[in-house]
Write a structure and sequence with these properties.
Length: about 180
C-alpha cells in the first residue's frame, strides 16, 4: 500500500537534487519542504535570503514498499542514503502529518524567517520588505489536526535547523511509539 516514508539523503544541496531526480525517475513522488531564511551578510551590514530544506538531510517519498523494495531504492538511487527506520523496519508516516505539512504556508509558499539575533541587530539597517503573508489555518480542522498543525507550526518556526529537524524526528517517533503499544490497537 502506498504511503509517505522518511528518507535520508547524502549531505549537500546537489545530493538533494540528485536524490529527488533519481526517485522521480523511478516514478516515486518526492516532497521536500523548503524554507526561506535570512542570514547576515559578511560584506556589509545587511542580510541575505537563503532557501534551504525545512528538514536538512531528510525528504519524503510516496511509494509502495511491496512494489519497489526500500533496499533497492537505497542501492540504486543516487543521492539517497537510507530510509528512516523505527526498530528494524521502515514505517509510513501518518497521512495527517503529511497533510498538515503540505497545508503549512511555509511548505506551500516559502515563508520568511529572520533569525532573532539578526532581526534585532539589523532591524534598522535592513531594506524594506513587504509584510509577511498571514498564516491561513486549515478549514474545519478536527481537534487532532488542529493539535498536529500547532505542533508542526512550532517546529517550522524554530530558527535552529538542527533543533527543527530533531523536533520533527521526535514527533514522528512518537507516532510510531504510540501505535506500537498493544493497548493502542
Amino acid at each position: 500500500m502506498e504511503a509517505w516514508y522518511l528518507v535520508c539523503y547524502e549531505p549537500g544541496k546537489e545530493k538533494l537534487y540528485r536524490a529527488q531526480l533519481s526517485l522521480s525517475l523511478k516514478n516515486i513522488t518526492v516532497f521536500c519542504p523548503m524554507l526561506r531564511t535570512w542570514r547576515p551578510r559578511t560584506d556589509c551590514n545587511g542580510v541575505r535570503p537563503f532557501i534551504e530544506p525545512l528538514f536538512r538531510g531528510y525528504l519524503f517519498a510516496y511509494l509502495d514498499p511491496e512494489v519497489i523494495h526500500p533496499s533497492r531504492i537505497e542501492e540504486e538511487c543516487s543521492g539517497v542514503s537510507k530510509f528512516v527506520r523505527y526498530g528494524q523496519e521502515i514505517k509510513p508516516l501518518p497521512a495527517s502529518v503529511m497533510e498538515t505539512l503540505m497545508a503549512l504556508p511555509a511548505c506551500a509558499d516559502e515563508r520568511d524567517v529572520v533569525p532573532k539575533a539578526a532581526k534585532q541587530e539589523k532591524a534598522a539597517q535592513r531594506p524594506y520588505r513587504p509584510p509577511r503573508k498571514r498564516k491561513q489555518r486549515m478549514s474545519n480542522p478536527s481537534p487532532l489536526q488542529s493539535v498536529l498543525y500547532d505542533k508542526i507550526s512550532r517546529i517550522v518556526s524554530t530558527d535552529n535547523e538542527m533543533q527543527r529537524t530533531a523536533m520533527f524526528l521526535a514527533l514522528t517517533k512518537s507516532f510510531h511509539d504510540h501505535t506500537d503499544h498493544p493497548g493502542n490497537r
